[in-house]
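Researcher: If only I could read backbone structure tokens as easily as an amino acid sequence. Walk me, if you will, through where the backbone shape changes along the chain. I have put the entry right below:
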Amino acid sequence: MSSEDELGELRIGELSRRVGVSEHVLRAWESRYGLLSPVRSPGGFRLYSAGDERRVRRMQFHLARGLRAAEAARATITEGPTPGALPADDRRPDGTGRPDLQALAADLQTALDALDEPAAQAVLDRLMSDFTLAATLRDVVVPYLRELGERWANGELTIIQEHFASNVIRGRLAGLARGWGNGDGPRAVLACPPGELHDLPLLIFGIILNRRGWRVDFFGASTPVVEVIDGARRSPPDLIVVAATVPERLTAISADLAHLAAVAPLALAGAGASPAAADAVGAELLTGDPVTAAEQQQHRRRP
């Protein structure tokens, strides 16, 4: 086991939030199968390592492939303690052991197009086991969602396929967002304006923001801006982000956005946001993909 694996940094609640597995199940996997190897803090708390997190994700991968829990645990442990190690039959021909990100992205699309939820979850488990969360979201999930919308608009997908894929992705993202209002870091409020239903990119932005120490209040699709203003007046956040896919969603509420910008720092995001729209209401413009935009945020607090 590497020194990185031996360094316990995560309480079980944080590990549970990261991997989307309940604390009860994590404790069972630890006691029954020896899957996890926590160390004790000076205060007596169990602390889990990055290696523990990787083993949980490999456990999830094997479960999604149809193995029983005991079999999945044995397979995970047999793979060895090397960080990111893959079974021999999962290695690339060049021997690096690193899976091909684009091949996994194609596998994800194939599974979702076929309405095969177990296969899609297995691919997502593999991605999150073998790549960083930022890489998985920025290089696979965000492009997939963009293409999903385009393919649906072009008539290449049925409504059922689009809804199915969106719900599978949303479920996985929701697991990553558990407990993101806890902590004492700067606080962000994230919302889409009335009529805007596409909030998954904003959800991804919030997940990465939280990983960088922020607390997040996520209101999601079609949120009345006047209610955001009222909440911000009662408890001013360090940042408010309003995201829209078309400009009309923002121009229709420009007066409310100007009021919001007067209460707390405001940023506009999404394909519907522009420099002109941001300047008109006194807001910042977030550009690029949601992962990069979140990574660029500073740990700022209101005075």
User: Anything to note?
Assistant: The longest strand covers residues 215-220.
